[in-house]
Amino acid sequence: MQDIEAALGYRFADRALLEEALTHASAAGASRPSLERLEFLGDRVLGLGLAALLGEAHPDEGPGDLARRHARLASGATLAAIGRGIGLHRHIRIDRGFDRDSLPPSVIEDGCEALIGAVYHDGGHDAAMAVVTRFWGAMIGDRPPPDPKTALQEWAQARALPLPQYALVATDGPPHAPVLTVEARLEGLAPVRASAGSKRAAEQAAARDLLDIAAATGG
Fold first, then answer.
1. Separation of alpha carbons 140 and 49, rounded Å
2. pLDDT tens across 125-144, in order?
3. What are the two backbone dihedrals, phi and then psi, of residue 158, each rounded to the nearest 5 degrees?
4. Residue 171 belongs to what H/E stretch?
5. 43 is catalytic
6. Sign (positive/negative) of CA torsion 143, 137, 90, 92?
7. What three-state secondary structure class fits 152?
């Protein structure tokens, strides 16, 4: 636990909170609560902290760019990378059936958020914000990620694939509240469909789904 405290730059007054944040559900019991409640809290604390930092760092950006930045910084991939960076996978209490060196990223993500929740519970808002700033501060000024359609196009071009294709396949709902369904296709991936109130929004949603499929298949 001292290693985790040193990595966080925070010393717990109540060590039981740290123990709880490091206990996976598979190792929990009647006398040892799991990290799930602290993870729930930490998710909200992190979201608020990132929103505040982004708002201060990028006063001229609109909600769309800020939302894309926020989504990337709060993503599972970012949480897992930070968690592994502080050696969280070596300290989480888990069932013996798990291999510590190949823990699912979701376990590390949850543990990372649980630590933030534990710091908030133990030391309050300022202590939690200090931890968020410690690990996310250097990324706050990064270039905002592209929107899903642009990201998918860049993904395809990097692999010398034809550009994604989008087709409107259905229009439902009344004129004042239409629901448009778009099908997106990209060579090598199964086509996906997404619906939204506008063609552009449906295309973005479909592109996001294709990106998720690409990531899941190791692309």
1. 11
2. 999 999 999 999 999 987 77
3. -65, -20
4. strand 165-172
5. yes
6. negative
7. helix
